[in-house]
Amino acid sequence: MGGPEASPTARVTILGNVPGVYISYPFCAQKCTYCNFASGVFPRDREARYLDALHTEIRAHHWQWQPETVYLGGGTPGNLAPESLAALLSELPGRPWAETTLEAAPGNITADLARSWAAAGIDRVSLGVQSFVANEIRRTGRRHTAQIVGEEIALLRAAGIDNINIDLIAGLSGQTEFSFRESLDWIDRLAPEHVSVYMLEVDEDSRLGKEMLLGGTRYGAMDTPSDDAIAGFYEIAVDRLAAMGIARYEISNFARPGRESRHNLKYWLLEPYIGFGADAHSFDGAIRSQNGESLEDYLAGRGRATSPRDLGEHLFVGLRLTNGVQPDPAEWRRFDQPIRRFLDAGLLETDGGLLRLTGRGVLLSNEVFQEFLVP
Ligand code: SF4
User: Which of 13, 68, 159, 273 has the highest count of CB atoms within 10 angstroms of its CB?
Assistant: First the structure.
């Protein structure tokens, strides 16, 4: 048995509406070379302890509202045994949910597995594809091929799961404009409802980052694209996806009309959500709380933290949305100077009371966001 049951009341009690539920499953079949999450490959017995702790934590929660969306992330929750996934979801009230997403790695999805996901209530699958180009996939440590992704999407659709996200990374080792366009060609062929494109910032704690610091060559460490090249890939993605009818609605997220992630939108609209499991975050509208980040901390009930919402958080997260954000009068006053500066520099624009990033502002968004990170 894990530790969270030892002091479940240490969590923030969410009294208001809890429209989003996030469940963290930090286990993966392999550790990807660029990954710096507290997820990875752990001994088998650890998973059983983790699932026990997760069930205990979910049961200890005092449900006062029905969840609207459920998101299983990680890690690779698609690797959960079908009966374990069904048992976890059976702990949650409010079925059928408006959107129930499972993150999965391509390479192991069978017709039976897809049917078991649909039967458990999953109606959206997010595939960690990252690239469709063999050389790039190999260097990440992942094991799929483009053909396998295509076959597995067909299995998901045959099982009735017709809301598919594909994750792509701009900036993988060895990636060129030509190869990035090849991945986008596959997106065009496979026609997912949703695409996420992340610009890779190599973290020095990842295997790739450590190799780069050492000046080594493993994982293609000598062959990572420049920041300018990555920004160029991203802009190509914005244009190509728009031409496919998959429009950007958030810096990294693109969807066909009506297929935006309802769960992830809650993060950017500052709606409350609750997270269960290692490193899971919760937000009640005013206070943020977080479970222990590492598997060991979570199992031992350590590392919980809470913090009040930041002053500039509404702008900080809302500016990620393509539609922009409507600052309230106090925010206009409080952030008058940086807003003016970024308007003058062409990184922000206003439109009928809305504030949003320009195309250039999107590429320099970290610089903009820093000004709104005021505790
Ligand atoms: S990138 Fe995803 S699948 Fe790969 S190790 Fe990290 S969490 Fe696991």
Answer: 273
